[in-house]
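Hey,
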Amino acid sequence: MAAEGKPGAEALPAALGMSLSELVHAVGGFEGDPAEMVRASVRTAERAFAELDACDDVIDKASESGAKVADRLSAHLSAESEADIPAELEELENIAARVRSTDETRRLLNRVLGREDRDASTPAAVVHLTADDLPKLPSAYAEADDYTDLLAVAGREEQLRPQLRLVHTERLTRVASHLVTVVEQVASAGFADKQFAGASLREARHAYELWQRCLAERRRDLG
């Protein structure tokens, strides 16, 4: 996200999106010495671009760090390393906080440099996953009219066990994939959009809680 080169002095007013008189006012004015005014303006613009580059570096590093967190989360979820996941979610919060610390600087610099539409694109909405979106668990009680005693129900449960194991696996896989996808998407965007980043991190925590619930249900049903 580095700046695409710095404007020359003769192009500075246009690059900054202001008239020459506005530029003079912005730098305080240099009566009788327009050349010095232009040189000072160039130095001011260079400092602004340098600060914006530094902000962009924070976003680029956040994107890289977020992608690594997504990879680690994928490994933890596959291994069902439940205790390792909260630290990764906390790291995502830290990454987002570092990017948020640049928000005001980026906004002001983009306005001064006439680039207010630079971050105008809005990321896609964050998809929310609920338990209702997951495959339904088969139950021996779904056909209760076919059985007249507990032994029959127990037999039905044993018959359903392979299917139950498969559905539990599908549910866990679906939630794990969703969690990783949410993190990958916000990492790809560099956490630069505050609303999108916040919604993504909330959804990541919600997905982890849903994954924990699915894991507990599988342990309950299959031991």
